[in-house]
Design brief:
- This protein has one domain: Beta-carbonic Anhydrase, Chain A.
- Helices cover 35% and strands 18% of the residues.
- The chain has five helices and five strands; from the N terminus they run αβαβαβααββ.
- It is globular and about 45 Å long.
Amino acid sequence: MDPRVTAVDELLDNARRYADEHASIPTQTPMLAVAVLTCMDARIDPSRLLGLEPGDAHVIRNAGGRATEDALRSLAVSNSLLGTRDVIVIQHTDCEMMTEDEVLRRRLTEASGADASRVDLLCFDDVDRSLREDVARILGSPFTPDEARVYGYVFDVVTGSMSQVVPD
């Protein structure tokens, strides 16, 4: 690889090639009426994992795959305005967020030089409990339709398998 070419340059070249073959999808409404909330961990490829094609589902990603205020905001738009009825929450083994908030805040402060004392990290020590809490938060949102079904799964980063936690 040419040392003057960065990873971003290569990704932008891929985007140009993608545009050459792109087929427009006529609607913002996901064809499967499903939203997926998962972790941003690069070891998880939700499209490959779930067999999703463009236009099938909304995919929301954040650190830990948590039902944060921003994730709930995105799900509100997805559920209330764009017709999704089912939500799949996928968290995973060996997650960076499986620690104590104070430990991660200290690491963030050291790495960035910025004060992370007020950052709500939503760290957790038990992925099953975290999934149950997040599914409950989604179900408790006034924007989640009464008929919505919300599922919680743990993805094993070593085996590639998923196990259902919610409903149990």
